[in-house]
Amino acid sequence: xxxLPSIARFRHARSMARQVxxxxxxxxxxxxxxIIFTLVSRSFPESPPPxxxxxxxxxxxxxxxAEVTLMDSSPGDEEDLNTKLAIxxxxxxxxxxxxxxxFEHLGEYWLPLIEExxxxxxxxxxxxxxxxxxxxxxxxxxxxxxxxxxGAQERKGDAAPDHGEAYLALVERVEPLLQRFRFIVDFIHxxxxxxxxxxxxxxxxxxxxxxxxxxxxxxxxxxxxxxAVYAIHRLFRCYDQDMxxxxxxxxxxxxxxxxxxxxxxxxxxxxxxxxxxxxGRGGLVTDDGFTVEGLVTLCRHFxxxxxxxxxxxxxxxxxxxxxxxxxxxxxxxxxxxxxxGVVFQLRPAVWDxxxxxxxxxDSNKDGLLxxxxxxxxxxxxxxxxxxxxxWCTPTSASSLGLDAPAIDQRQWxxxxxxxxxxxxxxxxxxxxxxxxxxxxxxxASDVANYLTCVPAPGPASMTQRRRRLGIGYGLDSRLGRGxxxxxxxxxxxxxxxxxxxxxxxxLSQAPGSGDCCKISSSSWPHDTTVDGDGSTxxxxxxxxxxxxxxxxSGRHAEPRIHVVFAAQDGPSQIADLVLLLYxxxxxxxxxxxxxxxxxxxxxxxRAFIRRPPESGGPPAPCDARVESKCLKLGIPExxxxxxxxxxxxxxxxxxVVVSVLGDHHMPKSxxxxxxxxxxxxxxxxxxxxxxxxGGLIAAVGYELWKKSTGDQGDxxxxxxxxxxxxxxxxxxxxxVQPTSLLDDVSMFGSLPGNGGAEERVKLCQLPxxxxxxxxxxxxxxxxxx
Length: 785
Hints:
Blueprint: H1 4-16, E1 18-26, H2 32-41, E2 55-57, E3 66-71, H3 78-87, E4 90-96, H4 100-117, E5 122-128, H5 144-155, H6 164-180, E6 184-189, H7 198-210, E7 217-218, E8 223-224, H8 226-239, H9 249-260, H10 266-277, H11 292-304, H12 308-317, E9 342-346, H13 348-360, H14 371-377, H15 409-422, H16 424-434, E10 451-455, H17 462-469, E11 485-493, H18 497-507, E12 540-545, E13 560-567, E14 577-583, H19 587-599, E15 606-611, H20 624-633, E16 639-640, H21 646-661, H22 670-679, H23 683-727, H24 741-746, H25 757-764, H26 771-784
Helix pairs in contact: 5-7, 8-11, 11-12, 15-16, 22-26, 23-25, 23-26
């Protein structure tokens, strides 16, 4: 039982490790089986088997994330050989140093066969039995495993002498093969009998699979490939969190600590600086640190020095795989808009990050991002969506939206608020692409790193949502307590979809509004489900309400208020406010808007918005039916919105903000008053008030019911005693003394407006639609909500 934890860890490591298959091939008699047997057992076999069965090495043997399978082969078994050639990740071609025919057979048979069966693999040429010649070519071991091999070699008394001429001769011999077959990575002399350079050979072979050079470097041009440059640019973006365009000492230390778990010493940083300065080009380093071109130069140096594992270590820590594909964590796809009655908003750190991006890429420093600036912001995205913002749909005039107008910072933020409101999945994944990692890099795959949740608009959560966003207080200091920004969703409803689209375009004329667009994932590089029924969100416009701090500094007041005006995308959608659109000159449109208003649930906020005739002229008075409906519900008068009118668009957008935050858009009722009162108090105090008011209403109802039933019994007794008294009036002359207030009143006869006992009893009985009962039912519904 003591070994169970270690066994569990071993199984977990194997399940997480990558499978690497290394094939050892070559002519018969060159020592393939001896190489594998000696590597595994650390001893040379006297009589090795003809073919060694597949051997699997545990992940910790070479790389902690690689499970290596060594495969032997025999030229006589052609079917088995072809199968292993097709599945091999790396091939070690062995020839005998003391047999030139085996070397010539590499170019005549083995290398063309590999090119036919598996041209994507990597090949190492190993000259075995090097101990039978005058010595080994000079080679320096870069890896600890190589040092260990050298130590073992020296202990056996087989230290390799310096034979520079032999090494030059080997290079001249192999050079034609290197030029002809580009998948050859390296060549080396080994000795299975002396256990020399075997660990070095297999370490390089496995490293070529785990950290391949081909995705990074183009041998023909002797430079980094374009995709590798894009990946390094995103690596720079991930660690340049202050967005000053320079990786300073603190940010370089974060790279060293996160990727290599080492502390960056001052002399190490200076040596890296000297490597970049040695390129002889300006603009690579500054007094503060490395520029993005300086980081590219540094990565190129590592690849050229056969240290591609350094570059891969940094790229993998930021989400890239071996093919330089960037796939966001699967947890970010779970941020659905309909999860458990909540909606998501961006965290304050994300808003700060987006503001820094805006300032960093404002090339003209004029407070505007033109189309080229926006494309540069999104230049680190995967290839299929590179340079295109989430609100730039593929159907625009340009695939990158380079014909789009420049946007200011309010519009920039409004676009992001719109993206989050319509598709939290696209928003969170886009932030991952842009390199936002937050304060804790370990939480980069967590939705909470990007988003914070608030209650969604709905019957069960509207009270909590109003309290969380501060709705009902107006634009004061209690708005959105604890939030850097709040987002309000407004639906524009009309049977005419073209009219809705025209209204959204008109609202986009308001200062601080983005353009009317969709959030699309039709060309996303991976499976991304956009919130909604289809692959594209409904038409929408994002708007940021401009508030200024009271101190006169001119800064934006916190929290910032964003409104997303969206077309209705399904009959069951809910929002903070529903704008009922109607045409002023169309009686059918007015009736449709009134019917839609009556169909809304009581807790749903609503307002009317009217479109005047295209003929222009002074605005006509509001339709009497709409005005009567507004007065009856206690909601504001309809908003006027004229096409291509910036002033009316600004008034409508700001009027919506004031209406929603002031809670003017809710139908008037006692429930609305009580709900607003409860929303302004702490949760525990609200429960006490609800119980107290409910108890009071129940007590009043009980007393009314008790009095009504008691009066019915008293009136029955009065009727019986009255009949007895009328029969004995002539028999007794004694005056009848009043015994109750009702008897006392009956002595005065019938007064105007004062009926008899039966009429008084009816006044005390509550009909089924009495206002008190309606009040109680309405209050009970509020408590349930």
